[in-house]
Amino acid sequence: MSLAIVHSRAQTGVQAPAVSVEVHLANGLPALTLVGLPEAAVKESKDRVRSAILNAGFDFPARRITLNLAPADLPKDGGRFDLAIALGILAASVQVPTLALENVECLGELALSGAVRPVRGVLPAALAARQAGRTLMVPRANAEEACLASGLKVIAVEHLLEAVAHFNGHTPIEPYASDGLLYQNRPYPDLNEVQGQLAAKRALLVAAAGAHNLLFSGPPGTGKTLLASRLPGLLPPLEEQEALEVAAIQSVTSHIPLSHWPQRPFRQPHHSASGPALVGGGSKPQPGEITLAHHGVLFLDELPEFDRKVLEVLREPLESGQIVIARARDRVHFPARFQLVAAMNPCPCGYLGEPSGRCRCTPEQIQRYRNKLSGPLLDRIDLHLTVARESTALNPKPQAGDNTAQAAALVARARERQQRRQGCANAFLDLPGLRRHCQLSTTDEHWLETACERLTLSLRAAHRLLKVARTLADLEQAEQISREHLAEALQYRPASS
What we know:
Layout: E1 3-9, E2 18-26, E3 31-35, H1 40-43, H2 45-55, E4 64-70, H3 82-92, E5 104-106, E6 109-110, E7 116-117, H4 122-132, E8 135-139, H5 143-146, E9 154-157, H6 160-168, H7 198-210, E10 214-217, H8 224-229, H9 231-234, H10 240-253, E11 266-267, H11 275-279, E12 280-281, E13 286-287, H12 289-292, E14 297-300, H13 308-312, H14 315-320, E15 322-326, E16 331-335, E17 339-344, H15 363-370, H16 375-379, E18 383-386, H17 404-422, H18 431-437, H19 442-454, H20 459-475, H21 483-491
Parallel strand pairs: 3-4, 5-8, 8-9, 10-17, 10-18, 11-14, 14-17
Antiparallel strand pairs: 1-2, 2-4, 6-7, 12-13, 15-16
Helix pairs in contact: 2-3, 7-17, 7-20, 20-21
Protein name: Magnesium chelatase
InterPro entries: AAA+_ATPase (IPR003593), CHLI-like (IPR045006), MCM_dom (IPR001208), Mg_chelat-rel (IPR004482), Mg_chelat-rel_C (IPR025158), Mg_chelatse_chII-like_cat_dom (IPR000523), P-loop_NTPase (IPR027417), Ribosomal_Su5_D2-typ_SF (IPR020568)
Keywords: ATP-binding, Nucleotide-binding
């Protein structure tokens, strides 16, 4: 048969759209034409495939070969189609049975010797292949990653010869079985390593329990970074779907560290990071730090040192939980449901309010420093806390009840209540959910309205204050929000934010 079709997958953001590799052999002078919007790496595949077929001992047809990567309007890049193209040529030249390729999707880059090299973005392709009900053939180095899509039949190969022998029925390959490396978590740093800072630990507990954004402000050396690094250990374990989403993002950017899967990501970009580095971008859009922090924590240390235009791009993702990268040819959607934790100094020198009086910053310098953060951005941060300097005792006595295990148990209990009640964390409540699950008594509602007027809080800030109060009630397993919960939530909300 002179026509063969092999199924494969492209990579667009964190999606894996289907691609059909169509191969047609016709009479005429020997030539190979590749169509279907291929980029440079795909165009070069015809040379890699030719050498791989010949070095593997197969016949390369001396005919006019037309390769079409359908759909034609979808850009294709990388070497992920090499294996599918080689098998398509062999099937069209009757060296591989075409029927054996009908329900199989193939991914892999070919070396000139015929060896099959690993590629990026295998997990999104595996999830899509599972949904399509097909078997997935991948390089052996990607097999463990593909097995994260439970229920998918994975065929792992190291050489083109193995793939051909499998389809010809000479040496069938058994489906790859995971060796059990998929659920080994590394330990998080413990909360009891932070000396003192009871108020900050309380704010950290509240932030974890309701998935709230958090801003620490205080002098250098007070433990702001240390506190932020403890937050991932307080969060509940990822559910299977969340873990697959996190792993899919890692799959398209680098190889997944399987020994640490699944864990919530903790991203800490430097304050010199650009806008595209934070939100993603490029001619071929790649995920940025906010997407790499999906279902995890994004920690921005020295917040005012970031460029203001860079920080402003966080406003929409903080509300919508996604980012859309628009280019002339395409629009790519990246998930960005992250928890923001930020830290800053109270003034340029960092020592404003210190009893020693060492701060020499003028009011104009302090105001200029704080003006680097816009009101709309600060409005989207639920918890604002000033971290004071603690005792300098080098060997303090451990405090009871503030270790990670105990705090994580409280967080898990509060999150479980939220899932049963509304199906999401309190920070993600929409307006109808807010009205349904954050009801107040008439007197408390009037009291809160008066407080918001005196503090000149925006309506968004008032809604976020209600969500924090709902989280405080959940931590105490209370059905209704009380005046005490509202008062504590107000302590975390500065005036005119």
